[in-house]
Amino acid sequence: QLSAGSLRHPAPSAAAAPHSAFHRGRQQNYVPSDVQRRKSASDMSIRLRELIRNVRSCKTQADERSCIHKECASIRTAFKDENNELRHRNVAKLLFIHMLGYPTHWGQMECLKLIAGSKFLEKRIGYLGLMILLDERQEVLMLVENSLKNDLQSANQYTAGLACCAIGNISSAEICRDLSPEVEKLMVGSNPFVSKKAALCSIRIIRKCPELVDTFLDRVGTLLGSRNHAVLLTCLKLMREMCTTDAAMIEQLRRHTSTLIAALKNLVLSGYAPEHDVHGIVDPFLQVEILRMLRVLGKGHPETSDQMNDILAQVATNTESAKNAGNAILYECVLTIMAIEAESGLRVLAINILGRFLINRDNNIRYVALNTLHKVVALDPQAVQRHRNTIVDCLKDSDSSIRQRALELVYALVNEANVKVLVKELLSYLMACDIEFKDELTQRICTVVEKFSTDKEWHVDTIIQTLSASASFESEETVCSMIALVTSTPSLQAYATHKLFAQMDNKTSQPVLLQLAVWCVGEYGEVLVGGAPAGIEAEAPDPVSVVELLCSVMRSPVADLTTKEYTLNAFVKLTTRFASQPRAIALIHEQLNAFSGSMSLELQQRSVEYCSLLRLDSIRAGVLERMPAFAKKDRQAAAAAAVLGGGGSRDAASAAPAPAPLSAPAPAPPSDMDLLGDLLGDSAPAP
């Protein structure tokens, strides 16, 4: 009886031993066939998910580089085989390696081989690699043009779609020009999938070859006749690109206005459509694109705008604003109404929609509303003024971006009728805003007050209050503006001087306030000590206290050099204003003598010159009389004139007649008087 072991492993007979040895010899000399070699290569190739898993398991950057280099070597070896059945898998891994930032240029030709293949799986990976690994500047791209043309003519819609995607992403101007007829044929086909791909592809062709824009003009009407929403959406994208490329296309595309209005009306008034519904709204993406196209067609054209008024009113009234999809449509509707030649009632309706946006809880919607109102406030300021209270409330919002946008809008809303109300709100915001915004806000408030104020005393009070809230603000322009206001308004001089003196008496450290106060005290000192005007409750100071207060400014560590220069000017001015006050005059001389040895060259020079001027009684009163009224210079206009006049001044100079030649002036007779010495009080003849 045989055992199980003997059945499984029978012992070789002696006769069979030579035969077994013969077979072992044949096995040692065996050479694998091509099929077995490809099979072994496929066994060595790992899948993409395994490569991703291996890369993720690397602990260090060196381990990752080692893993990638090993896989790249394996992919190179596989690419050498002409009959590689797993080329698409290797190219997919190559794309992942490219995403990690490693060089993959050596695999570009494999993408072209996949595109030339017949299987859709290979073409899909090949086109994906073509769009990622190559760009329009590489000459290798010219080798794929024939494959693109063949795929555009393919009966398989997905193959034609892949070719359109490739052309729309990386095609050069030469490829666009060569393949434009094929793309144009696909646009008018019966397959909506291919038509929408071809319409998007034509956008790339127009961008690269603007001279071909006329060839797609007739295809637009065919695409607009489609009932497929995707085709309509891509057609609208194409129309906008045509208008951007060539403005003359707008006039020719206006004949499709009625078609667009009918399509939009159908979307607005249609019932529930599950395939296009987004939060209860039928295809908001298509509605937005139609509104954008209508905005382009109706801008600056009253007849076309009249056709749109009814449908825009329907969109504005029938669209729900509870969801973001509805808000997006309403926003585009508002922009369209404000851009075209719409009726005044329709503009008010659009601005009221933005007013509703302002009370929305979503900060993004409120930001968009504020930004849009700022753009349209110049078109209909009265309609925007109705929402002034809501806009002012946005200044108290916790979001800094909303506060900044509300601030810009408040500046645009200010006029002579509401300047006091809005400036009061701006001052409240100035007290609470962050310190980095104070200087800019202070400058804006000063500009608004200067531009729209009708009450001079309120003007002075507001400027003082604004400057007091911003301790670090410095502006030479604000100083000049206030000085121009005071000098040109005699009835305001006493009021402004007392108000500014009170600020200086309160030890203010604000540089602009100090400079204004010192200037007014020096210029109108006799008004200051002569008595308090109407509206001032404080008593008039005596001359000695005024001079002592100016002396404290000179000693103050917070007063800058410019303020001290203003103070020296005030000292010398007060010598004529307080001429009957010997104590005050003595203090002034003491201060001027003290600063004659100052370390600051400017202060030293002024003190020495003023001391010398005070000894010249014959001219001192005329030099130190009040400044005449002067107008504030428009620095922005002057700067613009300087920029614009740089080239024009030469032209004007060359065009102007040449002046008559002047005879050389006769030499002046030598003077025996040293003019500088005369100014300093020394009339000795010059050596």
Strand arrangement, major sheet: 1-2
Individual helix count? 38
Q: Report helical residue fraction.
A: 55-70%
- For the CA atoms, what is the radius of gyration? 43 Å
Overall mean pLDDT score? 84
Strand content: under 5%
Which structural class matches the secondary elements?
mainly alpha
Largest sheet: 2 strands, antiparallel
Shape: elongated
Cα-to-Cα separation, first versus last residue? 154 Å
**Annotation, overall tally of beta strands:** 2
Low-confidence stretches: 1-32, 34-43, 642-687
Structure report:
This protein has 687 residues and is an all-alpha fold. 69% of the residues lie in helices and 1% in strands. The protein has helices at 4-8, 16-28, 34-44, 48-56, 61-79, 87-99, 108-116, 120-133, 145-152, 157-170, 173-187, 192-208, 217-224, 229-245, 249-253, 257-269, 284-298, 302-318, 324-339, 344-358, 363-376, 381-385, 388-393, 400-413, 419-432, 435-452, 456-469, 476-488, 490-505, 511-523, 525-530, 543-555, 561-577, 582-594, 601-614, 617-623, 635-655, 675-679, and strands spanning 277-278, 281-282. Strands 1-2 form a two-stranded antiparallel sheet. It is elongated. It starts with a helix and ends in an 8-residue tail after the last helix.
List the helices and strands and how they pair.
Blueprint: H1 4-8, H2 16-28, H3 34-44, H4 48-56, H5 61-79, H6 87-99, H7 108-116, H8 120-133, H9 145-152, H10 157-170, H11 173-187, H12 192-208, H13 217-224, H14 229-245, H15 249-253, H16 257-269, E1 277-278, E2 281-282, H17 284-298, H18 302-318, H19 324-339, H20 344-358, H21 363-376, H22 381-385, H23 388-393, H24 400-413, H25 419-432, H26 435-452, H27 456-469, H28 476-488, H29 490-505, H30 511-523, H31 525-530, H32 543-555, H33 561-577, H34 582-594, H35 601-614, H36 617-623, H37 635-655, H38 675-679
Antiparallel strand pairs: 1-2
